[in-house]
Amino acid sequence: MTTSAPKNKMATISSLQEPFCAEADFRQTVGTFNLRQHSSNAAPNLSDRGIWDFTPAFQKMRFHGARNHDWALWNPGQRIVDTHFVFPLVHLDPADPKNYFFDATDEIIRITQDAGCQVFYRLGTSIEHSGIRPEQKHFNSLPPKDFYHYSEILAGIVRHYTRGWGDGFHYDIPCWEIWNEAENDPTCWKGSYEEFIQFFVIVLKRLKKEFPELKFGGPAATCFQETLLRQLLKACKTAGVAPDFLSWHGYTSQPDEFIQEPAKMRDLLQEEGFPNCQLAITEWHYLLSWDGIQSNMTPEQRKQAMEGPASLCDIDSATFNLAVLSGWQDTPLDQAFYYGANPRSPWGFFNHLGQGNKNYHSMCIFGDFIHAFPSRILTHRKSPGTVYLLGGVADDGNEGLLLVSDYRGEADELCVKIDGMEGAVATAEVLDHEHDRTPVTVQFADGRLRLPKNGPGSAAFLVRFARG
After folding, report:
1. What letters, b where the CB count within 10 A reaches 16 and e where it falls short, cover 20-48?
2. What is the arithmetic mean of pLDDT over 256-276?
3. H or E stretch covering 137
4. 3-class DSSP state for residue 121?
5. Which of the two residues, 11 and 417, has the higher pLDDT score?
6. Residues 6 or more apart from 370 whose CB is under 8 A from it?
7. Three-class SS string for 200-211?
8. Which of 426, 417, 416, 422 is CA-nearest to residue 397?
9. At residue 292, does pLDDT exceed 60?
């Protein structure tokens, strides 16, 4: 269980004496790190595995969990995960394991677990980008014709992976998410939201009845939409069933607002009478605009979305990642899954030459950081401000790490106040628009840590302190 910082230690600094932009105190620990917040929608690839195996690069990011949404889209030719692939003839008897095709999903779950990740299973379908006009057809996002029959199919999938049914397994897959972005009509649910709520309640009741030891939830909302989420929760309360977790997504470029969402969700759940419901952000990614990515796909818009420091895969995105992951440690968020999917897509971690992009390096940095030391230290940042801190310390206090993320900051140099590392030597590496985890000379004396930036803009530093 992760221990959060006491509330009186979570306040940000409103007026530090210049030139300090933030403070870190290695003498005071505030609990441990929540490793589950460092998870992803990515996994080792099943398709093209004999040409390029993504596993070694995936392992370097050290994700705790892997949500299996959209896996069928970036593993072409594989019948995996999505319910219409696992149970293709929906009219057949879901009580007969011969009517399921588990083999390919069995394999990708195996290789994902072998790579060190716990699977978070999304039940339902991947997103379907077959068009938005009325005359354009959708197939996978159509609501099931019989919600009760469909719930039996889902029960068979859960049973196969957790109870050994149908020559299956007894895997530790604790969390099962019901559908994805149902309000994102028609790409995910070509029906009304009211229909989805009815479907969600039926499936939730059915699965919780047979598998009380597991966690079921959703609805994987496209964003923090209070009205729609309250509507779902009220329906659950009326039906006498409680989701084990509530999930939503975030695509934004505003880290402070995004970091605050879990507290807002906790308040919402408390008001609606679900104090024990966990919180999960099951997709998140830096995003300035959908233009050039999923809309207005002109060459100019595409170039703007994919090139330069503010683009989808460059330094603003990478520093945003580290800022958000740092800030979430002081929130009630239970788990989060970065939307990194196809490793070579704009949502992935590599360019067309197979070189790691800035998002890849940011995830490697955070993975290394969060596993280095067991105890989290007390940090403060200016609010509002561009600098975000997260620190860890060894049990003997002689070594420590500090992650400093400056998101779109204008300063050429950062100065951080450091307590509790007297006599230590500081070394660092920098991630910026021109450098990927490159060693950089820093100055540390008299409790002042000075970090040189390569001009204004986003940059992140991983600083190591060591005595003796």
Report:
1. bbbbbbbebbbbbbbbbbbbbbbbbbbbe
2. 98
3. none
4. strand
5. 417
6. 33, 35, 38, 62, 392
7. HHHHHHHHHHHC
8. 422
9. yes
CATH of domain 35-372: 3.20.20.80
What single letter denotes the amino acid at residue 293?
I
Phi, then psi, of 193 in degrees rounded to 5: -65, -30
Distance CA 36, CA 278 (A): 12
Is CATH 2.60.40.1180 what the domain over 7-32+375-466 is classified as, yes or no?
yes
Order the strands of the 457-466 sheet from edge to edge: 436-440, 425-431, 457-466, 399-409, 387-393, 375-381, 22-32, 413-419, 448-452, 443-445
* Pair 42, 66: CB distance under 8 Å: yes
pTM of structure: 0.94
Which segment of 112-121, 178-187, 315-324, 338-347 scores lowest on mean pLDDT? 338-347
- Is the Cβ–Cβ distance between 392 and 33 less than 8 Å? yes
pLDDT of residue 135: 66
Decide if 353 contacts 310 (C-beta within 8 A).
no
pLDDT computed for residue 354 by the predictor: 85
Nearest to 317 by CA among 306, 333, 327, 328: 306
Give domain limits for the chain.
7-32+375-466, 35-372
Q: What is the mean pLDDT of the chain?
A: 94
pLDDT over 90 at 40, yes or no: yes
CA–CA distance, 316 with 103 (Å, rounded to integer): 40
**pLDDT of 9 above 80:** no
Lookup: tokens for 305: 């979305």
Kind of pairing between the strands at 399-409 and 387-393 = antiparallel
Residue 347 has pLDDT above 70, yes or no: yes
pLDDT in tens, 169-185: 999 999 999 999 999 88
Nearest CA-CA partner of 2 in 396, 374, 269? 374
Half-sphere exposure of 246 (CA within 13 A, CB side): 29
Band (pLDDT 50/70/90 cuts) for residue 8 is very low
The count of residues in the chain is 468
